[in-house]
Amino acid sequence: LSIDVSSRPFKVHTNSTEIITHSIIVATGAESNWLDIPGEYEMRGGGVSSCAICDGAAFYGKDVVVVGGGDSAMEEALVLARTSKTVTVIHRRDAFRASKILAQRVLEHPSIHVKWNTVVKKIVGEKSLVEVEGEEESDSVDLDNEEMFVTGALLSNTETGEDERIDCAAVFVAIGHTPTTSFLEEIVDFDEEHAGYLQTIGRSTKTSTPGIFAAGDVSDAVYRQAVTSAGSGAAAALDAERWLSEEGLGNEEAEFEAELLAELMADDISNKPADNYNAYDDAGANVAGMKESARVEF
Length: 298
Prior knowledge:
The protein has 298 residues and is of the alpha/beta class. The protein has helices at residues 52-55, 71-80, 100-108, 226-247, 252-270, 279-283, 290-297; strands at residues 2-4, 10-13, 18-21, 24-26, 30-32, 48-49, 63-67, 86-90, 112-115, 118-131, 141-157, 163-167, 170-173, 177-179, 212-214.
């Protein structure tokens, strides 16, 4: 994917086609950063997640793990502590890099435990039959469908090199996000405080390049939720529509059709006599006597 803004309208090049457009709404989102360790990919959806708000309720009353040491990890841990039995925070250093207030809340929470100078080497799981949704019996399962579910994590101390396994039902990876915006380098301005995120102007979705708008996680380093992204998308559509109107731009094909239709109607009207027009004359001889019969009826 690439964008050519050297001339207007813009040219968007995809894997299979080229799109000519006056405006662009960038909504390519942000990818969660992962650990790239054994078991992580295989058990996504089976206990491995990057969103406590999305998936935390599924592990009510169970032991869970959060990996990370920034604000995102602290927020994930505090959200999970509301419903989970215990939350173990794994951090590779001996101090959090999160804000002091969030870090203090985590350290003081009775259900949250911290393992310092520790990394996750492997996520451990086992295969289990999948329950069939919609069945009345609680033990209804699909015998032909097995999935991997998290049962624990293998940890390693970065100072001593000792390994340790802990039991858990889920591992939440909270080590940041990477916006999918690399194709916009040198095209629009980026947020200096949040690497990879697009800089928008004021409270709008406008970027530094007129005609390009940012929606969702590409410009939101704070909330990163589906519902906020949807609202941002609606705002970007409104901003783009207003900008097109102000610039006098729009759908040239529709405008051409409207102009052509107006010309045809004008030609049709000009070919008709302006005075003494009689609809019965246009209808022809088949309506002879129509005026008389109509007069009788009324």
